[in-house]
């Protein structure tokens, strides 16, 4: 519980000092009203609760009676409301699979570069042929 001005006790689970630090990290913020701080903390709690509940209901969590990271990442990828979290909650892949993806991208990139070089050489050949023909 956090104690705010006015002597009122309001329940928030998140540490207000951390939220204040995060809010002040924005260059546009010079001072933070206690009520704004509390409302931001409460809104964040509600958002996290909604994300967790949605992920649990639409994921495999019900089967295992647990919420997993893959449930959260699947929600971030599939649900339009949470797609802004896709970079923060990427799907986990095995390191070996990632290395194979990198190798494939590298091979595809080299093939693409070779094609570009061939096109440049063809353009130069055409320019030389045109000069010779004139």
How is this fold's topology laid out?
Blueprint: E1 2-3, E2 9-10, H1 16-24, H2 34-58, H3 61-64, H4 69-78, H5 95-133
Antiparallel strand pairs: 1-2
Gist?
The chain is an all-alpha fold. It is built from five helices and two strands.
Question: Main traits of this protein?
Answer:
coiled coil; 134 residues; 2 strands; two-stranded antiparallel sheet; Histone, subunit A
How would you sum up the global shape?
Answer: flat
CATH topology heading of the domain at 16-107: Histone, subunit A
Q: Compute the average pLDDT.
A: 78
Number of helical runs? 5
Largest sheet: 2 strands, antiparallel
Give the CATH superfamily of the domain at 16-107: Histone, subunit A
Order of helices and strands: EEHHHHH
User: How many β-strand stretches?
Assistant: 2
The CA-CA distance between the termini, in Å, is: 87 Å
**Lateral strand order in the biggest sheet:** 1-2
The percent of residues in helical segments reads 55-70%
Low-confidence stretches: 1-9, 127-134
CATH class placement of the domain at 16-107? Mainly Alpha
Helix vs. strand class: mainly alpha
- Rg calculated over all Cα atoms: 27 Å
Protein architecture, described:
Mean pLDDT is 78; it is low at 1-9 and 127-134. It is built from five helices and two strands; from the N terminus they run ββααααα. Strands 1-2 form a two-stranded antiparallel sheet. Helix 2 (34-58) packs across helix 4 (69-78). The longest helix has 39 residues, at 95-133. By secondary structure, it is an all-alpha fold. Residues 111-134 have a biased composition (Acidic residues). Pfam families: CBFD_NFYB_HMF. Its main location: nucleus.
């Amino acid at each position: 519980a956090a104690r705010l001005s006015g002597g009122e006790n309001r329940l928030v689970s998140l540490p207000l000092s951390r939220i204040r630090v995060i809010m002040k990290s924005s260059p546009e913020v010079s001072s933070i009203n206690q009520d704004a701080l509390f409302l931001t903390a409460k809104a964040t709690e509600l958002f996290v609760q909604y994300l967790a509940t949605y992920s649990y209901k639409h994921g495999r969590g019900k089967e295992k009676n647990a919420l997993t990271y893959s449930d959260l990442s699947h929600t971030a990828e599939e649900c339009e409301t949470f797609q802004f979290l896709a970079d923060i909650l990427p799907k986990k892949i095995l390191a070996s699979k990632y290395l194979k993806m990198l190798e494939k991208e590298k091979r595809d990139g080299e093939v693409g570069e070779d094609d570009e070089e061939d096109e440049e050489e063809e353009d130069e050949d055409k320019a030389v042929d045109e000069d010779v023909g004139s």
